């Protein structure tokens, strides 16, 4: 679904999960049902201050009367999460995109292994709810810094799947910490791995899983954002608009989206970090320098699409299907 399908919803409840995480319960202002979603889905949300941010839905997909999101106040971020914490209030009407899912459960999984780090637990919770409802075979591991920073703790403890969840605290005794190497050392045929969390956590899990022989098609993950590029190493290049033949120069330190915008070509964007796929654009000629975390390595190798919000070009020229 495209990012221009927007809904107006009301903030029915805003609750503090921890000192730096709040949940927002979003409902239809007229009391109607909301569009369906599947476990692992997220929404785009217009945040006060002109931001558009993506938040995973963390409630059960069976709940059509509400969407539930969790938002970490990221002091090192670009201001969106801080705006949610400081400016969004109960009864406010906010605009959101219809749910989209790039982190879905595999239909053919014999068993599912769910790994969450910090706020990355939000889509994992929705998955646990759905797998539990299906009576599926799964286990969940949730890594956090301390009990005080563990969001949704009461919900997990009182859930129907509580016995399937192990919580690992950084400040806890050594015996309860997650031994990732041991957990992932022997991939079983038919087991699918799902992981979401901060970059360091995610990279560690993926490295161990691949070293241990997990098949790429059995590893599913979602990043919060792409890694920051080294602007100093960037070089200018040209993009050509296929429909008109117009050439637009993209200088060092300037994104393709911004350069095209200056030339009068508006491309829909949301996260502006290569994480959501909203700006995905077809490439007709040239080789992109992929810097997104939305596409798979196999999709990158095809070089027929790229994310102009953050990606650049390895060649002097890119021809875009615009």
TrEMBL record:
Domain 2Fe-2S ferredoxin-type: 237-322
Cytoplasm found in the keyword field: no
Membrane spanning residue stretches: none
Signal peptide: none
Keyword Glycosyltransferase appears in the UniProt entry: no
Domain FAD-binding FR-type residues, every copy: 4-106
Keywords: 2Fe-2S, Flavoprotein, FMN, Iron, Iron-sulfur, Metal-binding, Oxidoreductase
Cofactor: FMN
Classification via PANTHER family: CARNITINE MONOOXYGENASE REDUCTASE SUBUNIT, NADH OXIDOREDUCTASE HCR
Record-given protein name: Vanillate O-demethylase ferredoxin subunit
UniProt source species: Paraburkholderia tropica
Lineage: Bacteria, Pseudomonadati, Pseudomonadota, Betaproteobacteria, Burkholderiales
